[in-house]
Specification:
Length: 587
């Protein structure tokens, strides 16, 4: 049974609110309704696994409910909608892997699912606590809005109900009145039912999401001896979700290569350091610029370790700073870029160079300020065998790619030398002419040209890789990443070999967690739907203030000012608080 698979941590129905259930005194009926509600929650929480078993691709995230059984065979319908009447039917116990649940009169249960939660066809492109708050896709029962599903226990026939004549007609089993395309339900005093609210269901799903993030971060810490640096919290619709060094609180940084459900490209270039070394024996060499200025030495075009007539001995690799280096997963020949990466960057070095010129028959030494700019672009394949380096105090987790033979698509190495004597205004007097100006040489390997030599590109930023399964792809596809906030104390900074906080001294504090509260090495927090409760002074507007923690989190979880930003709060869901928190580890 799915209920057993899920476990008690996901079940929110142990203590049911009196408004959510009406049963006329029969204990068996009460238990049947409770059991059915638990099965629905279990199905929604475990939906990715259920979806995977069905063989569908892509696999959807948690939060979906099955269609109703409209044929009285225990199985959910293939598709459904409230307006079409196919979201009203019997409880699909076989689809839910539950027993054939019946009420105290031996009748199978009936069930209605809201459009926001049906699993086929899906009404929402992204299923999370924010999107399902669209009330137009939820049920309203007896004036109570935001109902995900209602389960009825028919009991004995009432009034003119004829169950023999209409065994699949809900009006022969349910006395409730349906209106507004079956979205509005008014029950009668003879209906026995239980409600599954949007908030109940999504709080269970949020626990699943928290568990996935916590599991990913714990494995990351085990594998790489530290938690990852984070991405600073900002407007989730525009945040880069990329690592920034010395960020202990914020978004989870990630890489993900598939396009998002709305079709937007998710492979935006990201800034990254690069450490580039090369030794190339082939390719086409061209020059451009001032012909009176010397060409960069060819041996320095073909290798980062060389001796140059202007710069002397040059020892690679070339170190490209994050501010001038970018990488992206893309390519020119394949629509599936997961094994391709394109990087580019620049690096400028300078030197003083003295050259003897003749002026009016006299030899004069002229000293030039010479700057050399490396502009390097590589596009290559087979990145799966990259060497991965742990995050450090000044760097993120990084990859080094060693490239040789035929797995390179494009290579361009350009050396551009600029000479400045300060005497350009007098250039016509000199014989031979001054070197002032720029001269560039470019070495290019075209698509299909096999590399004779090797290239190594290191220090490429490597955030949590969703494509490699470090966290499920539905986490991003359903925008859960926009509702997650991660926090560590500064004492947990990489490298991790000696960075474990001390309880009561420099660990994070979690009020409401029980004793001790001050021993948390890391926390993951998930925001529920925006709270609009003016009477209690809480009006979260994620459109007007999308970059404000107060728009997402409540209480101590919304404070960004030290030292209070290292104190967090755990509490029960209410009209003024709906954050949920998962502890990553304790010392």
């Amino acid at each position: 049974m799915l209920v057993l698979i899920v476990g008690t941590s996901y079940l929110l129905v142990n203590k049911l609110n009196a408004n959510l259930i009406r049963v006329g005194g029969e204990e068996r009926t009460r238990m049947a309704l409770n059991q059915a509600k638990q099965a629905l929650i279990g199905y929604a929480v475990m939906f990715p696994e259920i979806d995977a078993k069905s063989g569908t691709d892509p696999i959807d995230g948690p939060g979906y409910l099955p269609c109703a059984d409209i044929n009285n065979n225990g199985s959910a319908g293939g598709s459904c909608s409230l307006s079409g009447g196919t979201s009203i039917g019997r409880f699909p116990y076989k689809t839910l892997e539950a027993e054939d649940i019946k009420d105290s009169h031996g009748e199978r249960l009936w069930y209605v699912v809201a459009d926001n939660f049906r699993n086929n066809p899906k009404k929402l492109a992204r299923q999370n606590s924010e999107t399902v708050s669209d009330s137009t896709g939820n049920l309203e029962v007896n004036g109570m809005a935001d109902i995900a599903a209602i389960i009825f226990a028919p009991g004995v026939p009432q009034n003119n109900q004829n169950r023999d004549a209409g065994p699949n007609d809900h009006t022969n089993y349910i006395e409730a009145v349906f209106s507004s395309g079956n979205k509005v339900i008014q029950t009668s005093n003879t209906d026995n039912y239980i409600l599954l609210t949007k908030d109940e269901l999504m709080q269970a799903v949020e626990k699943r999401v928290l568990g996935e993030v916590a599991q990913a971060l714990r494995k990351y810490q085990t594998d790489y001896d530290a938690y990852p640096w984070l991405s600073p919290f900002s407007d989730p619709s525009t945040s880069a979700f990329k690592t920034v060094i010395n960020t202990w609180q914020g978004h989870l940084p990630y890489h993900f290569l598939e396009d998002l459900p709305d079709g937007s490209n998710n492979r935006n270039p990201f800034d990254t350091e690069q450490s580039v070394a090369w030794d190339i024996n082939n390719g086409t060499l061209t020059t451009s610029g001032n012909p009176d200025t010397p060409d960069p030495d060819e041996n320095c075009m073909r290798s980062d370790d060389c001796t140059d007539s202007i710069f002397g001995v040059l020892n690679g690799p070339i170190q490209i700073a994050k501010a001038v280096g970018q990488c992206e997963w893309t390519n020119t020949v394949d629509v599936e870029p997961k094994n391709y990466m394109k990087c580019n960057g620049t690096k400028t070095i300078t030197t003083a160079y003295t050259r003897t010129h003749n002026l009016f028959g006299e030899d004069i030494d002229i000293t030039y300020n010479v700057s050399r700019t490396y502009s390097i672009t590589f596009e290559y394949t087979d990145i799966d065998d990259a060497i991965i380096a742990n995050p450090e105090s000044t760097s993120s987790r990084a990859r080094t790619l060693d490239i040789s033979n035929n797995n390179v698509e494009n290579v361009s190495v350009q050396l551009s030398d600029t000479y400045d004597s300060g005497l350009a205004a007098f250039a016509a007097w000199f014989n031979p002419v001054l070197y002032d100006g720029q001269r560039a040489s470019t070495l290019v390997l075209s698509i299909g040209e096999i590399l004779d030599g090797n290239i190594s590109v290191g220090s490429i930023q490597y955030d949590i890789n969703i494509d490699d399964g470090e966290i499920p792809d539905w986490f991003v596809k359903n925008d859960w990443h926009k509702l997650i906030y991660v926090a560590y104390p500064e004492s947990e900074s990489p490298p991790g070999s000696a960075t474990v906080c001390t309880s009561g001294t420099d660990c994070l504090v979690l009020d409401g967690a029980g004793n001790p509260e001050n021993n948390n090495r890391g926390l993951v927090i998930i925001a529920g739907a925006a709270i609009n409760n003016p009477a209690e002074g809480i009006e979260q507007d994620r459109t007007a203030a999308p970059g404000d923690l107060l728009s997402y989190f409540e209480g101590m979880n919304s404070i960004i000012t030290p030292p209070d930003n290292e104190i967090f709060e755990k509490g029960k869901a209410s009209s003024i608080f709906n954050d949920q928190i998962k502890v990553l580890a304790t010392p």
